[in-house]
Amino acid sequence: MEVRQLTSERFEVIWRAPVYYRKPHPARLQFPETWRPVGEPSVKQLPDSALHRHVVDVPDGAINGAVIRFVGLESTSTDVFARFVWLDGSETTAIARPSQPWIEVIAERSAWQVAWDYTVLGVDHILSGFDHLTFVLALLLIVNGARRLLITVTAFTLAHSITLAAATLGVLWVPGPPVEAVIALSILFLAGELVKVNRDLPSLTARYPWIVAFTFGLLHGFGFAGALGEVGLPQHEVPLALLMFNVGVELGQLLFVAAILAVVQVLKRLLREWPAWLRQVPAYGIGGIAAFWLIERVAGF
Predict the structure, then answer these.
(1) What is residue 224's three-state secondary structure?
(2) Alpha-carbon distance 158 to 151, whole Å?
């Protein structure tokens, strides 16, 4: 949601509600009773969401401390990121969640609040980014040894941190759809490498995992930047917000890695000897999903 101040008392509210399980999102906006609507709200249907536009008058411009509610959000798994753009060009942000389906408008948020919001946003993004997680999963299945795995994950982290910062700050720009397609291709490549490893064949990734992780990590960083670009950064706290978003991504990634390693240890105890066909199931599963993503994304150009 974006709330943009047009005059001292008039505000434009753009509410982008995503499609929720192929149906209109059940959450709806509820403004404070003192806010007076100007004209009729409009709705524009997009392929993946509905774009609602409201114009409201706020008596005396007393918006600070007002509460905007998202009725019905509590029954969903959706977070709402809100950005407020003021007349002087400054921006503030806030997040509503199903456990707290409202936002209190604050004209100036503290550095701590900005840090917390963008950390949570980073965690949410990586844990809902199934393509990025699938890439990390493939790496975990290919790389043997704790030290090699640590170096590989560090290389991936360093690479996507570089391009995330460069793209977000406008130093580099790459169109989103080709990046998303190449990310799917990178996962497909790792699936092929996993097949080789399971058959005891030479594999570039098994031999130089940190090089492969770093190379493809640069591409994944552009994908992270695309998500962050849709949200935007608060002008007064750009470095802090960028840093904490990246920290959130890394925290989410570490949680995923820890969960996968725990599952692998449990499976190793249950199945001491893996049948040859069972070892290939993850590789072909990852490859099949990646091939579908690749075709879908190229078709969407």
Answers:
(1) helix
(2) 10
